[in-house]
Design a protein that fits this description.
Length: 380
Amino acid sequence: MTAKQILDAFSETLMQDERILSPRERELLMSLLQNSRAVSGSDPQTQSAVNAAIARSVGETVAQRAFALLGGSIVEQILAGAGVPVGIEESMATNPPGPQPPSGPQPPGHAPLNPPGPQPPSGPQPPSTPLRTPPGPQPPSGPQPPSGLQPLVVQQAAQEGRGGSGKVGVMEAPAIERAQCVVLDEFLAPQELDELVRYTLEHEAEFHSSEVISPSGEPGTVDYNHRCSQVLLDLGKHEAIVLERIRGVLPRVLERLGIEEFPVTNVEAQITASNDGDFFGAHCDDAQEMIASRRLTFVYFFHREPRTFDGGELRLHDSRGSEQNVTTGSYLGVSYQSIVPQQNQIVFFPCSVLHEITPVECPSRAFADSRFTLNGWLHK
């Protein structure tokens, strides 16, 4: 066999071990490769660079996991051959760091959060709503090892004629950082919600295809392989209403997220309509130089009643903190939280969090039945 044949056979063996690469991870890698090919187009140099970054990231992760398994097996065999009772605790991570897809959406025009001069009355206020996090398992309160790759620990029992016992730490993985978010229900007053729905439906003709910033930093790119939806940039009076509400809850939101208060220099806001099959691939909202000043993302959900669509979940990916590298693309959340769109609900999270919108199912395909959001970003 040639060296390449031996290497290919070894790679195939590793891929068949789900402790090394799970089926879901293989699916994610396939999706990332397809998206990178679509973004790079016919430019072989760009495609080669993207493939090299993905290969390097996957190779490092697979090697790390394979070494942990190999090392554990060797230590266990040595101790077993010496007749020493051992206890070995090990588990493998379920998701490797992977490439970062193209960056967040194209920024619309900016607006100040706190305009100068006297402000109009804010209108009826919704009842006070406590801050909460989405349902599901919550992260532990103190520093904990991740649920993925654990330190390899060898516990040696005391032997007759040799006193003492000890632990030898062989390997330790970077901690998993849970994606942080704050969710508020009943954000707008009922009348304000009704008027926003009516305004959105009346301006259907003014919506246009959503845009993203290309990997090379070019704004205004339409990429249906990464983002498919429509946006409206003129929000009328509703922009001021929503921003006034955000200003009122911002100190509590930042405190809950562990973010220091910062001067808000600009605000981007838009209404997004997502119909049957629409989605937004995994991305960060501050991953390009022209949007690096974004600090906080907000997503306000609303729709026409009764709701006739499914899907369109906001999925926030956790991360291995020390392994995040958005610039080179060697980053992929190892687990995630899903937030199902609820009427009159708003979600806040840091712009650096990797997130995506799952595909929407809207059988009628009518614009009025779409999943709507009034979403945007606060700049520092």
